[in-house]
Amino acid sequence: MEYEIGPDESVSTAVVRAVSAVEGCEPCALRPLADVIDPAALDSLFGPQYDGTPRTGGRLSFVYDECCITIDNGEYLTLQLLEDRFGDERDQEPADSCVR
After folding, report:
1. CA-CA distance, 85 to 69, in Å (whole number)?
2. What does the longest C-alpha to C-alpha distance in the chain come to?
3. Tens place of pLDDT for every residue, the chain, 100 residues?
């Protein structure tokens, strides 16, 4: 699933919304994002610089609630369920940075 992060939406909120949409549940039913990654640090990583100019570039991948999340430039989020991603290929090296 691909998700475009809105201009007034924090990256951490986008992660929770995207995962809940894929899993078909309410955001409050998910494990807290803070159990996996610091939401304030995540938002800060992709937030504006100290002088207010936007940050450019950057990519971060991590696993949250059985999903591989990749954030590109703080604008786009790609989500893939680990079961779809690895299937029966658990003994093979993964294609990119999300690993179990």
Report:
1. 12
2. 48
3. 999 999 899 999 999 999 999 999 999 999 999 999 999 999 999 988 889 888 888 999 999 998 999 999 999 999 998 887 666 554 444 445 565 4
Residues 6+ apart with CB under 8 A from 55: 46, 47, 48, 49, 73, 74
* Cα(78)–Cα(40) distance, integer angstroms: 20
List the domain boundaries for the chain. 2-86
Phi/psi at 11 (nearest 5 deg)? -65, -40
Please state, in angstroms and rounded to a whole number, the distance separating the CA atoms of residues 34 and 76: 20
Q: Using an 8 Å Cβ cutoff, are 63 and 69 in contact? A: yes
- Euclidean distance between CA atoms 97 and 46, whole angstroms: 19
